[in-house]
Amino acid sequence: MIRWLIVVVLALLLMSGLTQWLRRFGFGRLPGDFEFRAFGREWQLPIGSTVVLSLIAALIARWI
């Protein structure tokens, strides 16, 4: 379970760094991705995209 937690955290960091590039491919706009404005700033919680990217990373890791 700790491995999955690490994968999800790493995917969240990856998503935050590559958000603009990944939006071209539809990530960040999946069901479960939340955007809201609070305290004069726009916040994003890409939960659905993180799960998809985690599954892709797990499949790649399994093949290697």
UniProtKB/TrEMBL annotation:
Pfam family, one: DUF2905
Keyword terms: Membrane, Transmembrane, Transmembrane helix
Ranges that cross the membrane: 43-61
InterPro entries: DUF2905 (IPR021320)
Name of the protein this chain belongs to: DUF2905 domain-containing protein
Organism per entry: Variovorax soli
